[in-house]
Amino acid sequence: MTSIARRQFGAVALGAGLAASGRAQAQAWPSRPVAVVVPWPPGGSTDILARGASRYYGDRFGQSFVVDNRSGANGNIGAAAVARATPDGATLMITTNGPITNNTLLYRSMPFNPVTDLTPIALLAELPAVMVARSQMPYRTVQELITYAKANPRKVNCGTPPLGSVAHLAVELLQHRAGIQLNVVPYRGSAPLTNDLLAGSVDMALDLVTTYLPHIQQGTVRALGVTTAAPIQQLPGVPTVQSQGVPDYQATGFISILGPANLPVEIVEKLNAASNAWLALDETKSILPPLGLTPLGGTPADLTRRMASEVALWRPIIQSAGIAIE
Fold it and tell me: Which DSSP letter does residue 239 get?
């Protein structure tokens, strides 16, 4: 055998050995505790979902799945840590779409690339939002709001959660699609926004369903429409914004599970099957709606397509509104 042939044979053997090692590692997974990074503080809907899913993964795979809250920079800190992790299945992430879609459009500089530095595993849940108004306002539907806003440009004070949040972008999308001009007031969080809405400092608001569900039920605010493509279980009888004359209007967040880039396909397949099985449980179907979540599921390819479609949806809206975060 020539020296060139020996080198070629050695390279082939090395590649085969590495592939076999990767397959063996994936088949043995998980052989140690798995960290499930949640790039948000404890206590929110994403954190609660992640803890429920992690308990199920632990029972299914016979290993501990431990939630690790790493918040900051609108999710970028935790997501960047996962992007840098070794792709052995010991580090995963459950997150809303912020750090894997919207942040790429909002931030001038990102510490990672969601497309090349992460492995999509499964869609877990959707985060519907609702548009509400003070009960004293003269509009009872989205179409009435649009008519009023066209006659009174920039006179309707509309509160939203922080700049660049899905709810904030949903208001920008409404202005864009309906051809209206609101006075948009971003708040630092949902609590101060809700207080000001109830006090009459703002006329209307848009936020996640859980924020306003009790106030809608008590009649202190009026639900104008939900931002989903179809009506939702939590608010029966409340029509969608899209069905009220705003074409192609859909603005929701989503929660998904991902891992570092180059996560072995065997691990991805195991986690995807486990995620879909957990979402199919009656218990899961009963606990997610009160959190303002709608179960999703699907394949890794479904998550990849959802990420791409979100970027395509929000790019022109963010550019048109001139929204940027340093």
Answer: P
The residues, any chain, with a CB within 8 Å of residue 201's CB and separated by 6 or more, are: 157
Q: Are 227 and 252 in contact (CB under 8 A)?
A: yes
Task: Kindly give, in sequence order, each residue whose CB lies less than 8 Å from that of residue 244, ignoring residues fewer than 6 positions away.
Answer: 141, 142, 143, 225
Going by the DSSP 8-state scheme, the letter that residue 42 receives in this structure is T
Six-digit token string for 120: 């999509």
Widest CA span in the chain: 89
Residue type for position 307: M
CATH 3.40.190.150 boundaries in the chain: 32-127+253-321
Report whether 164 contacts 74 (CB < 8 A).
Answer: yes
Say if residue 3's pLDDT is above 90: no
Please state which CATH number belongs to domain 32-127+253-321: 3.40.190.150
CA dist., res. 127 & res. 45, Å (int) = 9
Helix 300-321 to helix 166-178 angle (10° resolution) is 60
Q: Which of 238, 221, 222 is nearest to 230 (CA)?
A: 238
pLDDT, tens only, 259-314: 999 999 999 999 999 999 999 999 999 999 999 899 999 999 999 999 999 999 99
Tell me if 241 sits within 8 A of 227, measured CB to CB: yes
CA-to-CA distance for 223 and 204, rounded, in angstroms? 10
Under DSSP, the state recorded for 325 is B
Range(s) of the chain covered by CATH 3.40.190.10: 129-244
- Given the structure tokens 């509400």, which residue do they identify? 132
Q: What is the pTM of this model?
A: 0.88
CATH architecture of the domain with range 129-244: 3-Layer(aba) Sandwich (3.40)
pLDDT in tens, 104-147: 999 999 999 999 999 999 999 999 999 999 999 999 999 999 99
Strands (E) across 227-266 are located at 253-260
